[in-house]
Every structure is written in structure tokens, then in C-alpha cells.
Amino acid sequence: MSSIKIAGIAAVALLAAGLVAMVRHGRAQPAEISTFEPANMKDFKKPEPAELKKKLSSEQFAVTQQCGTEPAFRNAYWDNHKPGIYVDVVSGEPLFSSLDKFDSGTGWPSFTQPVKGTDIVEKKDAEFGMVRTEVRSKVADSHLGHVFEDGPADKGGMRYCINSASLKFIPVEEMDQAGYGRYLEPFVKAGLVKAPTHETAVLAGGCFWGMEEILRKIPGVTKTTVGYSGGTTANPTYEEVCTGGTGHAEAIQVEFDSARLSYEALLDYFFRMHDPTTLNRQHNDVGTQYRSAIFYTSDAQKQTAESVKAKWDKSGKFNRPITTEITAATKFYSAEDYHQKYLAKNPSGYTCHVLRD
Predict the structure, then answer these.
(1) Phi/psi class of residue 200: alpha, beta or left (left: φ > 0; alpha: ψ in -120 to 50)?
(2) What pLDDT does 167 receive?
(3) Is the CB of residue 169 less than 8 Å from the CB of residue 84?
(4) Do the Cβ atoms of 187 and 173 come closer than 8 Å?
């Protein structure tokens, strides 16, 4: 009998004997996390327990924060065979890949190794009359599970036995948009997904908070950054832009996978999410910084922008002519950190943007 099957039987025996601390509050449920940005991981601050209890299910909290163990064979990912990446349910930190997942027979997700470049913290665990090696995430210090030396010999011999409740699964087709594009290469090599083709657009249509919140959720959009474009002052601040004296518009730099979302389709979303007929104004926001503008980055984008604008002008959707400015992109200045993903961080914050039919 293989060591993996023996480990599975042993795990079931432990469960039957009641030697493993169990958490019985239902299966792990996906937790809402903001779009992952690797550069911001160093600034991640773990929420207080009271806040985590609001964001996590009772099972996720018990496992990640109280070192609980979910039931074998009755958890979200033990039998998940879809390609993708598994991340920390608390922080979004990438942890394991489906390419390294295997059926250990234990009833928990098992992996031969962490994702390359991920630091998994190992700690001695002497509870329940046995000595084991606990594994925890480095950024959020979440309890994940344990690591054993009875994994597939041809793949290093390790078995990372992980609780589903510690994980959030990101399907391979959603990885780029969710901020995990840098981890796609092994999936591309395995023929599971095509390499993304990145293109950049710069759009303005009023307060950048509301526009970004819509844009970042469009399938094919991989990254959004709010900032200032179309002006003359170098390195403008938000306060300077608000005076209207710098010439900048509040804008969004949009990175998108043009194999999944065409520039034309992106502009169709653009014209649906704001009123392009009000000159230098969106609802109560008045000033040149709130103008409607498309800042093209190539001749092809210019031609497409002019074509799409003309189409929408003739569509009958608006009672007045479209005033959207189409002009060559100049230097884009990223806005202050507190503006980035503002409505994701402050769901009740101000916005005047909706995506119309």
C-alpha cells in the first residue's frame, strides 16, 4: 500500500479518534478580496479579529486564526481539478498552483510545493501527542495546514496538506484580471491558457473613483490606475488638479488583454458609464478636470476612437451631441494612493457613474 494511501487512512483514524480539532460550520465559502497587487503586499496590514469575523465565514476564521482543521472530504477544494491558483483567503497572497496539486487520498487539498517565489512559514507543532510541521502564510500569518514527507517521490517527496478554508481559488482564466498575471507562464507552457496580450488605454469621464470601479470589473481588464492626464503641470497633486489650473483631467489608465477585450469594446463600455454630452461636467462635478476625453496611445487607437464616437453620436442614445475630446496621450501621472481603488476600499463612497444598457 502506498505511503499516500496509508497517510489517508491514518488521517481518517485520527478524525475518528477525535484527535484533530475539527471545525464544523459548513464548507468554505469564497471570501471577497480586493484585486491583488503584488507591489502592495509589503504594505498589507492584517485586519483586527473583529473585522476578520465580518469578512470570513466562521469556518475560515476558525481555521486561519485559531488553527482549526476542517473535515476531510467535506471541504471546497479537496477534489477540485480546475486549473488555477490558490491564494490566502485573508490577504490574497499567492500560495499554491493547481499544477502542483495531487490526490493524496486524505480528503484535503494536497500540493507538492508552494508557488515559486512564495515564502511559506514552517513551525513545529507538538499538539495532540504528535510532532508535525505546521505551515502558515508569511504575509497574513494564516494557519494553512501541515507539511509531510510522504508526497510523490518523483516531485520532491513533500505533501503540503492544506485546509480549503485557508484558500481562495482563482481560475486560470481570471488570474490576469485578478492581479495574478505574473503567475500565468507555467499555465501557458502547459497549454491551459493563451498568453495575455496587454494594451493600455487612458480614459477620462468625470470623477475617477466611479469610473475605475466599473472599469476594473470588465472582463479582460487586467489593471486600473487612477491619475491625471492631458495637462501641462509636472507631477500635479490632487489639490492642484482640482483648481482646474493644471489642465489635467481625472483619468484612468486601463491595462487590458486585447485578445479578450478589444479597444472598441472597451470604448463602448466607456460611453455607457458616463454622460459624454456635458462639456466639462459630470453631474455635480464641474470643471475641466471632469471633461470627457479619450487619450489615444497609437494611430490605430485614434481611428478606433473616432469611429466609436461617431457610432455613439448617431445611436440616438443621447439627446445632445457628444463632446468627448479625442487627443494624443501625454504623460500620465498616478494619483495619490488613497484614490486608488477608492470605492473598493470605501463601498459607500461618492460616485455618479452607472453602467447603462
Answers:
(1) beta
(2) 97
(3) yes
(4) no
In 44-197, the DSSP E strands lie at 84-88, 94-97, 101-102, 110-111, 120-125, 132-137, 143-148, 159-162, 167-171
Are 267 and 285 in contact by the 8 Å Cβ rule? The answer is no
What is the per-residue pLDDT for 126? Answer: 80
DSSP labels, 286-335: ESGGG-EEEEESSHHHHHHHHHHHHHHHTSSS-SS----EEEE----EEP
List beta partners, residue 203: 252, 294
Cell readout for 258 is: 486585447
- Ranges of the chain whose pLDDT falls below 70: 1-41
Three-state DSSP state, 40:
helix
* Closest by Cα among 291, 275, 283, 267 to 218: 267
Among 122, 191, 197, 110, which Cα is nearest to 156's? 110
Give the number of other CB atoms < 10 A from CB of residue 65.
18
Q: What is the pLDDT of residue 215?
A: 96
Which string of b and e fits 133-171 if b means at least 16 CB within 10 Å? ebbbbebbebbbbbbbebbbeeeeebbbbbbbbbbbbbe
Q: What is the pLDDT of residue 16?
A: 34
CA distance 70 to 107: 10
Please give the positions annotated as active site: 161, 207
Sign of CA dihedral 79, 128, 57, 48: negative
Per-residue pLDDT, 131:
86
pLDDT at residue 28, as a whole number: 38
Nearest alpha-carbon partner for 181 in 190, 191, 170: 170
Residue 39 has what pLDDT? 62
pTM beyond 0.90:
no
* CB-count burial class (<10 Å; 0-12, 13-18, 19+) for 173: middle
What pairs with residue 88 in β-bridges?
Answer: 167
Cell, residue 195: 498568453
Q: What's the confidence (pLDDT) of residue 255?
A: 95
Give the span between the Cα atoms of 214 and 160, in whole angstroms. Answer: 38
Q: Residue 314: is it exposed, middle or buried by C-beta count within 10 angstroms (0-12/13-18/19+)?
A: exposed
C-alpha–C-alpha distance, residues 146 and 95, integer Å? 14
Tell me 167's DSSP state: E
Residues for the chain: how many in total?
357
